[in-house]
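Dear support,

I submitted the protein below through the web form. The confirmation email said the job was done, but the results page showed an empty box. After a refresh the structure appeared. I'm attaching both so you can tell me whether what I see now is the final result or a partial one.
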Amino acid sequence: MNPIPHRLRYALSACAVAGIRLTPDRRRFLEALASRSTPFVVEELVQSTSSTTGAHEVTCYRFLTALEEHGIVHRITLGQRRAVLLSCESIDYLVCRSCGVLVSVPEPPELKSWQRRLAETTGFQLGHHWHELEGVCPDCQQSAL
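What the results page shows now:
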C-alpha cells in the first residue's frame, strides 16, 4: 500500500478540519497542488486541473479561494503572476520582480534561534513561515545593461 505523501495528507486533513467537502475533482486539484514543493502559478494549476478533471475553471478558482480563506494555501506573487503553495512547510524564496524567477534559499540557523526566543518571549506557538525577498535576478540585471 502506497502511503499518502506529507503534503497531500496535510491538505486532506486541513480540508476536513475546515469543513470543506471534497469531491473527486477537488481531491485531484489537491493532489496536483501537493505534487509540487514549489509554488504553482494559479492559472497553470487551474487550467491543468480543469483539463484533466473536466471541472469548470470557475469551480477551480472558487475552491482555491476557499483554500486561501482557511489558510490551507499561501499566496505569493511571481513577477506579475499569482502563485500558491500549500501552507504545510516553512519556505524562504528570492523572487525576481522583473521575470518572476524563484530561487529557494536555506533557512539560516539564526532565524530558528530567533523564532525560539520570540515564542518564549511572547508565549505564541509558532507555525510555519514564508519569506519572500524581492529583487532583480542576475540575468535581468545583465539584460538591463
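Response: this is the final, complete result; the empty box was a page-load delay. Residues 90-145 form a domain with the Dna Ligase; domain 1 fold (CATH 3.30.1490.190).
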